[in-house]
Amino acid sequence: MSVLTTIIMLPLIGALTLLFVPSRHKTVVRMIACSVTFLSMLLAALTFFEFNASDGAGYRNEQITPWVESLGIQYHVGVDGINIALMLMAAVVGYSATLVAKSITTRSKEFHVLLLIMIGGVLGAFASLDLFFFYFFHELALIPTFIMIGFWGRGENRNYITFKVTLYLSLGALIALVGLVMLYVKAGAGSFDIVEITKAVQANPISLADQNMIFPLLLFGFGILVSLWPFHTWAPMGYGAAPTATAMVHAGALKKFGLYGLIRIALPILPDAAAYWAHIIAWLCLGNLLYCGWVAMRQKNLNLVIGNSSVAHMGFVFLGISSLSLIGVTGAITVMVAHGFLAALTFGLTGYLADRGKSLELDQMGGILKSMPAIGSFLVLALMAGCGLPGFANFVGEAMVLFGSWSSFSMITIFGVWAGLVIGAVYMLRALRRALHGPLASNYEGVADASGIGAKAPYLILIVFLTLFGVFPRMLTDKISPAVESSLDLMKSTTSLTVAEKLNTDSADQTSEAPLAAESNSRGNLAESPQLESTQG
Amino acid sequence: MNTSLMFLEILVALAGLGILVGDLWTPDKHKKKLGYGAAAFLGILFLISFQVQVGNVKYAFGGMYILDSLAIFFKRVFLLAGGVVMLMAVEFTPKIKRGVSEFYALLLFALAGMMIAASAYDFSLLFVTLELITITFYILASYLRSETASLEAGVKYLILGALSSAVLVFGIALLFGSTSALSFLEITETLGQSSGSLASNPLAIAGAVLVFAGLAFKLAIFPFQFWAPDVYQGAPSPVTAFLAVGSKAAGMVLVLRVLFQALPSITLNWSAFLATLAIFTILYGNLAAIPQKNLKRMLGYSSIAQAGYLMMGIVAMSSAGASAILFYLVGYAVTVLSAFLTLTLCVNAIGSSEIKSLSGLMDRSPLLASTMILAMVSLAGIPPLVGFFGKFMLIQSVVESAPAGWGCLVVAAIIGVVASLYYYLGVVRAIIWDKSPNTELEKIQISTPSQALLYAGIFMMIYLGFFQNQVVEAAQNAASVFNF
């Protein structure tokens, strides 16, 4: 049994165990929940730090167990550079969310059961190398999310939001499911195993027409899950209404599922369609970066500012993916990891305030830094990381994405820089000034700060990882880039088109260079990696 | 004569007669024991049915009756459903004023009819078993004689059922007229032999369409779905459950046999036509279920929608599609039986089947609440419950064989599932967080057999959602009788 199976099963077994604990033993419930997620995080961290990128780009810690053989379904888990960091991020966010869940007082046992199922599902989705289980694990979280927002959620509009989030998420998931099933059928491998499908399409690429049918299904299916503009409206209000722990796991970890799916499945298996659709992704991501950033600027509620900014940050990941270059995709994955920590941190902190019954309307906040030095300073760090301050992992990823996309989409990159550096700074700094500085708002008088290491721990863990990867980005990128490189190589070798055909399918703004060709340029850049050096400051 | 092939059916029918006779010596207060006995007997038969070895196909009554892996698969589903429904009927007994034992006996007769339907290989036997099932249900649906809703359900089912039977007989007559045969075996040969000329004979095609229409009534496929909501709402809950699971599965096995074993040379190019029906069935069932306030009525509409999903497997016209249907039916049976058992117990305790009245159920009985929640989520088709895997197989089979119009069908299925989430999760919302109007909430007491059955239902919904392999293999084995 692979260590990955243990990491996934720990929260799920924890959830099962909790069912047999009487609800009145709240401490026992907390102890079980915290210890399983802590162990899971510990194992994930060990696996991450043991991971040696120089061993090549293949999968480690693999486990293959036949499941429904006649349909080509098997339980197959394994990690390479792309998902090992995501596993670590998901496990850390999961543990931190479980710590935060202490504030749940009504029906706390049921909440912990649902939370653990959700965490197990996220971890399973990132570890799975079989399309069926990849989808199955992700969907484990759908109903827990629905119940958690509905029962423990905040706000008067909760009912509407609960249904909106659930319907949106299941619509996205179903569209992606049809895409995945079509992928299985067209690849002709008779298996849902990603590794085998990749092998099969290398020998026998999927026809361009089929690729162009499957890719949009995956793009928009996963896109809805990731809040790709214009399918993003569920996200800010959903995170505003969700209980703190749920918002942390969902915004931090679960949302990255769709992006991971695009990188892991859509790029290497559908290379021609990816090259064709890259432009469209790039333009759509401007919707996230500019439009959602703009929307965030106008928000009067701290949670909605953060929710919209979290949607805006997804634009960087899409931009990185659309560049189809080594540095861009590596940057995209780095942003995914960094944003996971960051989103969990910010939603954890705003949740801390909201759970104490305080309004998050910006005009009713103020002076929090004075009365709550710890929570206030964490919030400063989080907001600074959110506008891409060097020293945090977000900066590394965003900078790499922008370097990577420059050669493919220079115009869009300019807008991206504008959105990331200017608009992002405007709303983050404005929120910071309104909420944290100035005289103490009457509303916030007498609110206790997080005191003691136990109360600060959930935020500290996230900050540690955020700065660790911000100061030593090579810990991440050295693991990620070989895997991305082999994935992009695969993409090149799988393509069924001749250069002439490729030029035909490319739109007019790519006069001589197809994105695939552009990608080799930027790979050259990475070898010298002036950008990488510069990010280590 | 291979009468021994029918021993399961014969035993079920004998049990029905036995109850009628035993009723004479049973005082009123012990009548429930007859029901428990019958349920236990069906459970034993269910276990025995796994001992029936189906090496090669066996026939009885001159080819009228067939025993193949498909037949035995369905007999197991029916026995399982029959046993659970019988326990539900026992729970329901207090509501029946007179004729408790007859209620049990009629359920057994309907069950025998369904089991024979699984083996029907001749249009005359098909008609007889279908009438056995339907006529029994006319009586069962109107069993609560003092309630107008129940009487209305019975009358509605009678009128529309009689109409559909007439259509069916007319179709059979046309087929007999054009092929001069009733046995599936002979009809296939006749239609296949004449190098397709007979298969394109308008008379034969009209016959096939009418037979399909008659069977579509049982499945509640659009445009033959009108009876479902009213009958589901008005009929006693155990009867509704049996209608939803047993009658639907019986209709399905007959449709499969008629389309793919009796008339394949006509029906194999029907996929566009069937896909259209499936699209309308899915959309109608799901969209009409959204505004419903009564749980039984909502489940009636949802059963229409589920019939639409099942049609996807037929449209696929492949063995993958057929095995998807069989797996789906097993999952559907487990889920719907759990839902209706919960419903029966809730109605007993609360006295209403309005969705609103379920609020506060989480406090009154966590077991009932969790079963209902899981059943709703499974019907909606969300992992990790069994309903998901059935839908997954159906979608896969449609995408794989890519028949005409499959794109629209898949889009309709997606719209249907998303729409269905709204009303299924509406029930979950009512149970978990809607505020109950009446504040005094007593705990609901549940009898031990029902409790065991609820736990078994929960377990099966989750177990089959994770470990699908055995049922998938059984379904594939059963579906191997079709040659595509």
- Look at the helices and sheets of chain A and give the structural class: mainly alpha
Order of helices and strands of chain A: HHEEHHHHHHHHHHHHHHHHHHHHHH
Low-confidence stretches of chain B: none
Structural class by sheet pairing and helices of chain B: mainly alpha
Mean pLDDT across all amino acids of chain A? 85
Main sheet attributes: strand count, strand direction, barrel closure of chain A: 2 strands, antiparallel
DSSP summary: helix tally of chain A: 24
State the helicity of chain B in percent bands: over 70%
Mean pLDDT of chain B comes to: 89
User: How many helical elements of chain B?
Assistant: 20
Backbone shape of chain A: globular
* Main sheet overview of chain B: 2 strands, antiparallel
Instruction: Please bin the fraction of helical residues of chain A.
Output: over 70%
What does this structure look like?
The complex is a heterodimer of chains A (537) and B (484). Chain A is mostly helical. Helices cover 74% and strands 3% of the residues of chain A. In chain A, strands 1-2 form a two-stranded antiparallel sheet. In chain A, helix 2 runs parallel beside helix 4, helix 3 packs antiparallel against helix 11 and helix 10 packs antiparallel against helix 11. Chain B has 484 residues and is mainly α. Chain B has a two-stranded antiparallel sheet with strand order 1-2. Chain B has a domain of 216 residues. In chain B, helix 14 runs antiparallel to helix 17. At the A-B interface, helix 5, helix 6 and helix 7 of A face helix 17, helix 18 and helix 20 of B.
Features:
heterodimer; A: mainly alpha; two-stranded antiparallel ribbon; disordered C terminus; B: 484 residues; 20 helices; 2 strands
